[in-house]
Amino acid sequence: MKRVKMKVRKSVSRRIKVTAGGKLLRRRSFARHLKAGKKKGRIRNLKRGIQVKGSLEKKLRNVMGVGN
Fold first, then answer.
1. C-alpha–C-alpha distance, residues 16 and 52, integer Å
2. What's the CATH architecture for 10-64?
3. Cα(57)–Cα(44) distance, rounded to whole angstroms?
């Protein structure tokens, strides 16, 4: 019997980046607007991506079709 391929969730694949080492990176929140009340260092740190860990990483890998 033919095995059905799982479709990739495009919304997730646009938001999450997979590195060469296989880690999942996402953007931080609170970095789009209303920056006047935030310190420069905080805004700078919000620009950097952060690694997805734990049970959420497992779920995202499954939805994106990325192996371990």
1. 9
2. Irregular (4.10)
3. 25
Six token digits for residue 9: 């969730």
- Most distant CA pair in the chain: distance in Å? 60
d(CA 50, CA 66): 18
40-51 burial: b if 16+ Cβ within 10 Å, else e: eeeeeebeeeee
d(C-alpha 7, C-alpha 36), whole Å: 41
**Residues 52, 26: Cα–Cα separation, whole Å:** 7
**pLDDT tens for the chain, residues 1 to 68:** 888 888 889 999 999 999 999 999 999 999 999 999 999 999 999 999 999 999 999 999 999 888 76
Q: Where along the chain do its domains lie?
A: 10-64
**Which pTM does this prediction carry?**
0.76
